[in-house]
């Protein structure tokens, strides 16, 4: 496997900035790709060791292009996650004034994060979506659009200047990025982990989603992401992308996955990996009755009952 990481390009994206915070990125060739799907395809084809992509932001939730890319196609697995605080700059060609701006561009995920600023400062500007925020900056450089919302760091790369900086509608906005590779044994648990899965219901029935969530609730597992995505099989046909606390080696998580495998049409395991939002010292304590020791004690009790030793 080539020692390279694919990422959502071009150069100068928030994705590249977040990727460079990983120590191992210094030992890999970092290759920009034009879309989320093309980066994932590079991993599936063996052209890259892993892909680094945005998957969730704190304003709009899950980033559907990445979720859909993990739901469909050959299975892949998440190995790491990174959180990055996000603020935007309005990048323009030198000499451009605010009153000159008729068109603005950015990745679709950026729009909800700058909507109010745009309404207040450029109410008549036409929004045009781009493959990434850096690509929007490149298109401004080429003269296609008047301005782009991107990271201030992208200005020098594309010969632009930051007309406005520190743009964000929500304080402390963050985007979560994930490192995705081919399936392998998950890393050892850290004590502050997350497990990601995709679930397909066996059939559509009243209480179907409750049945799925009950597998987590009955074992004291908190959910951090729950997002439905269309399967493409018709209106009302959805699968569910879920992030849950814990690691597959935890008894409560393993038994939850076994329960889901019994009742679901399909379960896609997307990995167990360290959480980026907390340290081990801040990790939640398993609810009473859901620790590995309590699962082991309950299993031993059943065995003794079966042997007549209760």
Structural commentary:
27% of the residues lie in helices and 31% in strands. It has 310 residues and is of the alpha/beta class. The strands form three sheets. Strands 1, 2, 3, 4, 5 and 11 form a six-stranded mixed sheet that branches. A five-stranded mixed sheet has the order 8-7-9-6-10. The protein has a four-stranded antiparallel sheet with strand order 13-14-12-15, with helices on both faces. The model has no long low-confidence stretch (mean pLDDT 94).
Using brief descriptors, characterize the structure shown:
310 residues; alpha/beta; six-stranded mixed β-sheet; five-stranded mixed β-sheet; elongated
Residues in β-strands, percent: 25-35%
Task: Enumerate how many helices there are, as a single number.
Answer: 9
Mean pLDDT: 94
Strand segment tally: 15
User: Spans with pLDDT under 50 lasting ≥5 residues?
Assistant: none
| Structural class assignment | alpha/beta
Q: Could you spell the SSE succession in H and E letters?
A: EHEHEEHEEEHEHEHEEEHEEHEH
Radius of gyration: 22 Å
Q: Helix fraction?
A: 25-40%
Outline: elongated
Reported for the largest beta sheet, the result is: 6 strands, mixed
Q: How far apart are the termini?
A: 54 Å
Q: In a few lines, what is going on in this structure?
A:
The protein is an alpha/beta fold and 310 residues long.
Spell out the blueprint of helices and strands:
Blueprint: E1 4-8, H1 14-19, E2 29-33, H2 36-44, E3 50-57, E4 61-62, H3 64-71, E5 77-85, E6 88-92, E7 103-106, H4 111-121, E8 126-129, H5 133-141, E9 147-150, H6 154-157, E10 161-167, E11 174-181, E12 193-201, H7 208-217, E13 223-230, E14 238-245, H8 251-263, E15 264-274, H9 292-306
Parallel strand pairs: 1-2, 1-3, 7-8, 7-9
Antiparallel strand pairs: 3-4, 3-11, 5-11, 6-9, 6-10, 12-14, 12-15, 13-14
């Amino acid at each position: 496997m080539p020692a390279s990481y694919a990422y959502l390009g071009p150069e100068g994206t928030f994705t590249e900035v977040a990727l460079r915070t990983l120590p191992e990125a210094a030992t890999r060739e970092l290759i920009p790709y034009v879309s989320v799907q093309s980066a994932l395809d590079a991993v599936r084809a063996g052209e890259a060791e892993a892909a680094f992509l945005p998957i969730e932001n704190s304003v709009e939730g899950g980033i559907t292009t990445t979720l859909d890319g993990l739901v469909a196609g050959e299975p892949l697995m998440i190995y790491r996650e990174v959180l990055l605080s996000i603020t935007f700059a309005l990048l323009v060609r030198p000499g451009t004034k605010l009153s000159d701006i008729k068109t603005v561009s950015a990745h679709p995920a950026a729009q909800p994060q700058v909507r109010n600023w745009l309404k207040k400062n450029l109410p008549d500007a036409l929004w045009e979506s781009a493959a990434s925020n850096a690509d929007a900056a490149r298109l401004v450089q080429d003269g296609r659009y008047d301005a782009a919302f991107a990271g201030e760091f992208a200005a020098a790369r594309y010969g632009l200047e930051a007309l406005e900086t520190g743009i964000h509608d929500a304080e402390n906005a963050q985007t979560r990025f994930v490192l995705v590779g081919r399936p392998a044994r998950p890393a050892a648990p850290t004590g502050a982990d997350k497990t990601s899965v995709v679930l397909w219901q066996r059939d559509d029935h009243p209480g179907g989603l409750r049945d799925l969530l009950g597998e987590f609730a009955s074992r004291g597992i908190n959910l951090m992401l729950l997002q439905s995505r269309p399967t493409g099989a018709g209106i009302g046909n959805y699968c569910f992308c879920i992030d849950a606390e814990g690691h597959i080696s935890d008894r409560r998580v393993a038994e939850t996955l076994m329960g889901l495998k019994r009742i679901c049409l399909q379960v896609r395991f997307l990995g167990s990996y360290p959480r980026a939002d907390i340290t081990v010292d801040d990790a939640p304590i398993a609810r009473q009755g859901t620790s590995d020791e309590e699962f082991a004690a309950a299993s031993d009790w059943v065995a003794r009952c079966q042997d007549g030793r209760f």
